[in-house]
């Protein structure tokens, strides 16, 4: 048991490990809810479990949502069904790896969170503004990371539309077709029994598309989230003891900041040569990010 806890602690303390951390949070919440459901059912107080889950799911009606606004965040970290979380986390891992490699850890986290928020907001707007859905608002609410995952899936497909996955029985398929298939499927099912969930999928997908398109134009929609996260980190980080040191400034040595550094033409040419020799997959994570930053300047 201690070894398992150490593994969890290591995953959360490891820098630039946002994808695994998001998956772990979803899995931990899922396992805790399973344990609570079993314990409370045996204790013959299942209504307590319902009360707990109602505090995590986002309700369809705004008049109920205003009393628990935190659910616009908690719903996309909460699952109750094994296949629901399994497929969500598999898709998040496959497509999230691409976003992480090309855009970096922080932007992947921002894309997931913004996708979840967009899905929740679209869900609330549709259910409160369109009469067709208002008569279908009797259920307690929505949970699941699907909207956030759709943002990552569509974001990856917008970023690298011709990247290929090898699918069982189908062979090589470009990810833009995978993303398009699931978006069309969600749209077709937006009038079915899971209308709310599919509407949220579409909201997340739209956010993923806009996020990457704006990023290519030089606008990072996730920067406010980055600023908030950095402020929180500084608030809880230990302040080092004051120490005065003197360094000789070396004007010939430039520092490399992965968030602000702009690669020069020689570096880009070298990366393009490497792609022509060994393919895109041979690039390191840093080289992929340099190539993306160069594309933003063009």
TrEMBL record:
Q: Which residues form the Peptidase S54 rhomboid domain?
A: 69-212
Report the transmembrane regions from the record: 20-40, 72-96, 108-127, 139-159, 165-185
Q: How does the record classify its membrane topology?
A: Multi-pass membrane protein
UniProt cross-references to InterPro entries, sorted A to Z = DUF6576, Peptidase_S54_rhomboid_dom, Rhomboid-like_sf
Tell me which UniProt keywords the record has, alphabetically. Hydrolase, Membrane, Protease, Transmembrane, Transmembrane helix
* EC annotation from Swiss-Prot or TrEMBL: 3.4.21.105
Q: What is the first-listed, main subcellular location in coarse terms?
A: membrane
Q: Report domain DUF6576 positions.
A: 264-297
- Localization, UniProt: Membrane
The protein in question is named: Rhomboid family intramembrane serine protease
UniProt record, GO biological process: proteolysis
GO-annotated molecular function: peptidase activity
């Amino acid at each position: 048991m201690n070894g398992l806890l150490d593994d969890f602690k290591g995953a959360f303390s490891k820098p630039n490990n946002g994808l695994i951390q998001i998956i772990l949070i979803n899995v931990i919440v899922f396992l805790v809810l399973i344990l609570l459901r079993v314990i409370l059912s045996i204790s013959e107080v299942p209504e307590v479990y319902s009360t707990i889950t109602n505090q995590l799911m986002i309700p369809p009606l705004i008049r109920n949502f205003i009393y628990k606004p935190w659910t616009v965040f908690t719903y996309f970290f909460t699952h109750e069904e094994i296949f629901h979380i399994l497929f969500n986390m598999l898709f998040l891992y496959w497509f999230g790896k691409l976003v992480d490699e090309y855009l970096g850890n922080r932007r992947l986290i921002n894309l997931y969170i913004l996708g979840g928020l967009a899905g929740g907001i679209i869900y609330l707007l549709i259910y409160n503004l369109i009469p067709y859905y208002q008569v279908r608002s009797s259920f307690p609410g929505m949970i699941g990371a699907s909207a956030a995952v759709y943002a990552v899936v569509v974001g990856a497909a917008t970023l690298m539309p011709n990247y290929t996955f090898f699918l069982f029985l189908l062979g090589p398929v470009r990810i833009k077709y995978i993303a398009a298939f699931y978006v069309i499927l969600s749209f077709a099912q937006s009038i079915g029994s899971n209308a709310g969930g599919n509407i949220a999928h579409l909201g997340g997908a739209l956010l993923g598309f806009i996020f990457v398109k704006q990023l290519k134009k030089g606008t990072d929609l996730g920067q406010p989230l980055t600023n908030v996260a950095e402020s929180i980190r500084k608030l809880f980080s230990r302040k080092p003891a004051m120490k005065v040191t003197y360094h000789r400034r070396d004007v010939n040595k430039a520092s490399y900041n992965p968030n602000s550094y702009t690669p020069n033409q020689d570096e880009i040419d070298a990366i393009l040569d490497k792609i022509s020799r060994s393919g895109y997959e041979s690039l390191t994570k840093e080289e992929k990010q340099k190539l993306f930053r160069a594309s933003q300047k063009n």
